[in-house]
């Protein structure tokens, strides 16, 4: 699809929001958000795989009322889309995660806050009291991890989303080329209290915190740590970054409340499968024992519909809402959410579904021989 020039007109879809954001952001910030690992094959595959899937519309069904509401882990949401954890959102806009919290609350959908957020767990909770989950990276120092979990629980976050596909950071060459990506005031603020800043000059404190936080991610994380995590919290624990049936079965055995099929938006292992192609094997493996969510490359209401038809309970979007944030702050996030919601509603009407319930959206909607 040709991309319109969108500098002077309101974007009409999520893809155009990326172009608008690109025009507004410094190149290093744009590349940090847009980029993937190495040759970006997996990044591209996420989109291409959705585009290969064809839908089987049914007709002559009364679709005057289409109900998008559903639940995720039993929590009611206005429609089956969550905002994925994305680090350092003040790179995109000074209001960062606070603006996203307000937009998510207004839309009655769930925001998943990153461990690497540029506003703190507590600040985001105070900005808007909509439903929130906390994305967790595990630290070598278990006490640091435990403190993050306790802070999220105390601030009212309703689930922990443990990201399991970052034993080490993927090889993101766009970032390597830029060397310095982050302005000094955009830092992972959840760790400010963990670092002794007394000997560091104010201008260098951001870099000191970032340098402290990044290498401490635990590369020795195993299923035993999932058990440990479950033992220290009453929040449900989801595992984000699962791509195989084997790991999906282990996740169920280790008490995961849900699985997020994800390749980290193509930012970790280049050569990992497109998530929408990995989804069916995972849905088959878990046999309905836990909910399955998926993210990666979702840009259209029809993409959401395809994911639901292949067995996802809901989907997450990452980059699109950050493009909205970069373009127009909170209003841009709200507009991205509204555009996707409207597209999903239309897609459901055009395929003849009046609700997102599993009874209506199923594999019958997907053309198998395409
Ligand atoms: C991410 N993602 C991510 N995931 C996570 O678990 N913790 C994190 O801190 C981040 N940070 C992050 C930063 C940026 C700039 C991006 C683009 C992504 C991955 C994210 O949660 C999600 O899996 C993908 O973004 C989904 O793909 P799309 O929707 O961006 O194509």
Quickly list its features.
10 strands; globular; two-stranded antiparallel ribbon; eight-stranded parallel sheet; alpha/beta; 370 residues; binds ligand FNR
Furnish the topology, listing elements before pairings.
Elements: H1 14-24, H2 27-34, H3 41-52, E1 70-72, E2 75-77, E3 81-83, H4 96-107, E4 111-113, H5 121-127, E5 132-136, H6 142-154, E6 160-163, H7 173-178, H8 205-213, H9 223-232, E7 237-242, H10 245-253, E8 258-261, H11 275-286, E9 291-295, H12 301-309, E10 314-317, H13 319-351
Parallel strand pairs: 3-10, 4-5, 5-6, 6-7, 7-8, 8-9, 9-10
Antiparallel strand pairs: 1-2
Descriptive account of the structure:
41% of the residues lie in helices and 11% in strands. The protein is an alpha/beta fold and 370 residues long. Helix 11 links the parallel strand 8 (258-261) and strand 9. The chain is globular and about 70 Å long. The mean pLDDT is 94. It binds ligand FNR. Ligand FNR binds at residues 32-33, 46, 84-87, 114, 116, 135, 163, 240, 262, 264-265, 267, 295-298, 317-319.
In short:
The chain is α/β, with parallel strands linked by helices. The chain has helices at residues 14-24, 27-34, 41-52, 96-107, 121-127, 142-154, 173-178, 205-213, 223-232, 245-253, 275-286, 301-309, 319-351; strands at 70-72, 75-77, 81-83, 111-113, 132-136, 160-163, 237-242, 258-261, 291-295, 314-317. The strands form 2 sheets. It has an 8-stranded parallel β-sheet. The protein has a two-stranded antiparallel ribbon with strand order 1-2.
């Amino acid at each position: 699809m040709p991309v319109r020039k969108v500098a002077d007109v309101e974007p009409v879809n999520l893809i155009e929001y990326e172009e608008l954001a690109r025009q507004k952001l410094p190149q290093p910030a744009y590349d940090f958000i847009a980029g993937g690992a190495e040759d970006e094959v997996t990044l591209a595959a996420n989109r291409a795989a959705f585009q290969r899937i064809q839908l089987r519309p049914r007709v002559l069904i009364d679709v005057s009322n289409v109900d998008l509401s559903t639940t995720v882990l039993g929590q009611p949401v206005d429609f089956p889309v969550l905002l994925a954890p994305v680090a350092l959102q003040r790179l995109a806009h000074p209001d960062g995660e606070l603006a996203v919290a307000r937009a998510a609350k207004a839309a009655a959908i769930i925001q998943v806050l990153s461990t690497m957020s540029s506003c703190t767990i507590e600040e985001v909770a105070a900005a808007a009291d909509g439903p929130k989950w906390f994305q967790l990276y595990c630290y070598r120092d278990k006490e640091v991890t435990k403190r993050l979990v306790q802070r999220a629980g105390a601030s009212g976050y309703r689930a922990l989303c443990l990201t399991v596909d970052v034993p080490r950071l993927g090889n993101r060459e766009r970032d390597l080329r830029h060397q310095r990506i982050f302005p000094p005031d955009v830092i992972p603020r959840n760790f400010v209290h963990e670092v002794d800043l007394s000997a560091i000059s104010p201008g260098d404190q951001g870099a000191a915190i970032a340098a402290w936080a990044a290498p401490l991610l635990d590369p020795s994380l195993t299923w035993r740590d999932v058990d440990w995590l479950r033992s220290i919290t009453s929040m449900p624990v989801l595992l984000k970054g699962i791509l195989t049936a084997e790991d999906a079965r282990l996740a169920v055995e280790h008490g995961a409340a849900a699985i997020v099929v994800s390749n980290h938006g193509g930012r970790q292992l280049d050569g990992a499968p497109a998530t929408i192609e990995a989804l069916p094997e995972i849905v088959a493996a878990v046999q309905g024992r836990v909910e399955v969510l998926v993210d990666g490359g979702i840009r259209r209401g029809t993409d959401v519909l395809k994911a639901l038809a292949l067995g996802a309970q809901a989907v997450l979007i990452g980059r699109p809402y950050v493009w909205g944030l970069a373009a127009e702050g909170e209003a841009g996030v709200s507009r991205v959410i509204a555009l996707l919601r409207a597209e999903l509603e239309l897609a459901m009407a055009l395929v003849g579904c009046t609700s997102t319930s599993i009874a209506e959206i199923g594999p019958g909607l997907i053309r198998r021989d395409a």
